[in-house]
Amino acid sequence: QVQLVESGGGLVQAGGSLRLSCALSGRTLSSYAMGWFRQAPGKEREFVARISRSGIATWHADSVKGRFTISRENAKNTVYLQMNDLKPEDTAVYYCAANMSTYGSRQPGDWDYWGKGTLVTVSS
User: What was the pLDDT predicted at 1?
Assistant: First the structure.
């Protein structure tokens, strides 16, 4: 079974940066579209970013566009989320997900594998 492990979360002040990593094991990363989702307390899990299997195409939620960048390094079986200019409203548990399609989707229910999440807390 595919396993995903996120890392890189922590506490950061508003305006700061973090880079999240997600390592996939059990399969080859290039077989999957990859995505990042987040869930804040009391809210539904929401789409953050996704990247195609090749890494050529990316999509980012409007709320993070221009601040966050998803990327992947297939040779290392790792996907990243570079988060810059962090805001308090970015505070959430961030989840990495894998999808067997080429592009993935914006809907959490469409994804096949999930990590356990890493907490990002942004102070004001």
Answer: 85
Task: Say what the pLDDT of residue 72 is.
Answer: 96
Phi/psi of residue 96, nearest 5 degrees: -95, 140
Mean pLDDT of 69-92: 97
**Three-class secondary structure assignment of 26-72:** CCCHHHCEEEEEEECCCCCCEEEEEECCCCCCEEECCCCCCCEEEEE
Q: With pLDDT > 70 as the criterion, what percentage of the chain qualifies? A: 100
C-beta separation of 37 from 94 below 8 A: yes
Other CB atoms within a 10 A radius of the CB of residue 11 amount to: 12
Nearest alpha carbon to residue 119 among 80, 93, 84: 93
**Tokens 């973090």, residue located:** 18
Is residue 38 over pLDDT 90? yes
- What SS3 state is found at 113? strand
Sign of CA dihedral 40, 62, 11, 79: positive
- DSSP conformation letters of 87-102: -GGG-EEEEEEEESSS
